Description:
The chain has helices spanning 31-40, 43-50, 80-89, 121-133, 146-155, 173-177, 186-189, 198-205, 211-228, and strands at residues 5-21, 56-57, 102-103, 106-107, 109-115, 138-144, 160-164, 231-244, 248-251, 265-267. The relative contact order is 0.21. The protein has nine helices and ten strands. Strand 3 (102-103) and strand 4 (106-107) form a beta hairpin. The longest helix is centred in the C-terminal third of the chain and has 18 residues, at 211-228.
Amino acid sequence: QDNKYRALMSTENIKTRFLSFNLSNQPFNEPEVRLAISQAINKQEICDNLFYGIEIRADTFFCRSLPYCDVDLEPYQYNVDQAKEILAAAGWQDLDGDGIREKDGQQLSGELLYISDRASAEELVLTLSSFLKEIGMDIKATGVDFMTHIAELRQGNYDLTYRETYGIPYDPYSVIFNMNPERGDYGMAQGLIRLKNANKIIADLQSMSEQKEILQTYNLLLTEIHQNLAFVPLSYMKELVVFDDAKIADYQFNGQPSNVDIAGIRLQEE
C-alpha cells in the first residue's frame, strides 16, 4: 500500500507446504483416514484467501517443473461429501452427536504440531483444523519452537505436523534422500515407509548415472509417495522480495530461496 516500495514474486515455485502424518499412530495408520483428510482440505481456498492468490495449489508432493518430477499422478480432489462417505464406510461414525466420529471407543482426533514463529503457520494450521472438523475430526494445533519441532519429529512424538520441503536447489534430491530412515528424519521417512527395499532404492539412486534409470526410479518413488498419502501437499510457495523503488530499479531471482543475490539487484540510475 506504500508507493515507496515495490514487491516482486518469482515465476518459479520454490518449495511445497505440506501436512505430514505419523503412520505409526492411530487413526492415521489407516489409509482411509488419510484419504478422507486429503479430500477434506480446500487447497484452492487456502491459496486464494490465506496466501492472497500468490501461491499455487499443490496436487503433487513436488512441483512437476522440478527435475525428474514430471510424473503423471491423479490428484486427490477436494470433496467433503466423499470424505465423509469414506470415513463412514471405514467404521468412523458420530454416534453421540457431538460432531466427532468414533470407532471402537476411539475418537477421530489428533495433535497437529507446527513451528510457531513461521509466517502464516498458525493461521494455516487453524484453517486445516477447521476443514477437518467439518468431516468429524478433532485436531488440536500445537505451536512449538524450531528445535522442539525437530526433536519431536526425530523421536516420532507427533500425530500430524505442518512442514515445508527444503526448497530449490535441494528439492527433490535432499528430500528423497532423507526419506531413508537411517538419515534420522523420521517424519520425512514416512513418505516411503510402506515401500519394500526403499532404503536400498534411495541409496542406489545416489550413484546412478543413466538418465533413463534415474527417471524410472524417481517415477517409482514419487508414485509411491503419492499413493501412500503420508503427506498431503497444500501449496507451492513463491519467492518474494520488497524493495525501495527510489533506489532499486529491479531485482532478478537466482533460484535459491532466502538467498538475496546482490548480482540480481539493478539500481536506479542517478
